[in-house]
Design goal:
This protein has about 375 residues and is mainly α. Helix content is about 65%, strand content about 0%.
């Protein structure tokens, strides 16, 4: 085989005697051209998954971007800021997201990407000190996020099937959902992505049925308050611009503003790192992560924009701001929306567990912290 290595950056040359494995590892991720079936070939370092752009990047990112905000907060935001105001918020948020993805793709094009996602890129670009510190923060944020997502799954299960259940019913549902996500994560990336594809089909069906219900269901009074009036251009014009009201979501007794509504719905444009978290399991991460993430962002933006218009043309403002379950109350079958909420929160919990584990594994393999070597077990990606 023939190989060519780019020189080490100064930050890693100075630390080579401190982290020799990381310095050697950096040489592996630079431009390498290999031929033949030699044991030292870059592709034979260890068993790894060969996920493609769709099941390894596009689907995981889209599952996280199309989250619970879509079902519970998007109609409320349209009622406060108007569909034009919310559209401008998504334009600003997606602009930041696209710039981040383009920066991510530029970093990935500089060499071979391995497991560890964002931590791996930061540590190889800025050095082990900053990379290790940020890696720990990423891991902790995923761990805390998984807890909140699991609690969301448990709360939705309780409200849908056990409305009279007490505190321990909620605790039990939350614990079981977290255990299920843990078992799937332990099964490996192959099982994780197969389940993700199934969850994506269910989520897409739920969103499609909910959107069609808003557009074509007959007018009716809603169980949670307000009325579905059916789509009309008159309502669409009336709900185009902001009409902010006082709402506890914006603070006790405070009137909502553009910035406060933007802050509440901003999580709808996050979740773009799920593809990068599977970097060690992708067949071609340098190509697939940037491309798959951009396609997921574009798809999500189109879905959100269509739902904004549907909500703006089918409900008056009092209904949009006063009833957070307008999608469930309007849908031909409310259980469809409940399942969509469960899938969106459950897939986010699953992604947080898997992403956090991959970062911790990469930290352990770089031997930055004593006593963590045992966590690095697994196929080397």
């Amino acid at each position: 085989p023939h190989s060519r290595h780019a020189p080490l950056p100064d930050s890693l040359l100075l630390r080579r005697h401190i982290y020799p494995d990381m310095a050697t590892d950096y040489k592996k991720i630079t431009v390498v051209t290999t031929t033949g079936d030699d044991p030292g070939d870059a592709s034979s370092e260890g068993e790894r998954n060969q996920l493609g752009v769709v099941n390894g990047v596009y689907v995981p990112c889209l599952l996280n971007i199309l989250g619970v905000i879509l079902f519970l907060r998007l109609p409320w935001a349209v009622g406060q800021a108007g569909w034009a105001g919310v559209f401008s918020m998504f334009l600003l948020g997606e602009l930041q997201t696209v710039l981040t993805v383009l920066s991510l793709a530029a970093m990935l094009s500089n060499g071979k990407m391995q497991g560890g996602g964002s931590y791996y890129m930061i540590s190889r670009s800025l050095g082990p000190e900053l990379g290790g510190a940020m890696g720990i923060l990423f891991y902790l944020s995923y761990a805390v996020g998984a807890t909140f997502y699991a609690a969301g799954v448990g709360e939705e299960i309780q409200q849908t099937w056990f409305p009279d259940g007490g505190h321990w019913v909620l605790v039990g549902c939350t614990s079981l959902s977290l255990l299920a996500c843990l078992l799937i994560s332990l099964a490996g990336a192959g099982i994780f992505t197969k389940i993700n594809v199934s969850l994506f089909v269910v989520l897409a069906s739920s969103i499609l049925i909910g959107g069609l219900s808003i557009m074509f269901a007959p007018p009716k009074d809603l169980e949670g308050g307000g009325r579905h009036q059916g789509f009309s251009t008159t309502l669409l014009r009336q709900n185009a611009w902001p009409a902010y009201t006082a709402d506890k979501a914006c603070g006790d007794g405070a009137t909502c503003t553009y910035s406060s509504v933007f802050a509440i719905i901003f999580p709808a444009v996050t979740g773009i790192m799920e593809g990068a978290n599977l970097s060690g399991d992708l067949k071609d991460p340098a190509r697939d992560i940037g491309r798959g993430t951009l396609w997921a962002v574009l798809t999500a933006f189109v879905v959100y924009a269509l739902l904004m218009l549907a909500c703006g043309g089918s409900f008056d403002r009092a209904t949009l701001t006063g009833n957070q379950r307008v999608l469930q109350d309007t849908c031909w079958e409310s259980l469809v929306i409940s399942i969509g909420v469960l899938v969106s929160t459950g897939s986010s919990c699953l992604g947080a567990l898997f992403g956090g584990a991959r970062i911790l594994q990469a930290l352990a393999r770089d031997k930055l912290f004593p006593g963590t070597g045992w966590v690095g077990w697994g196929a080397r990606g």
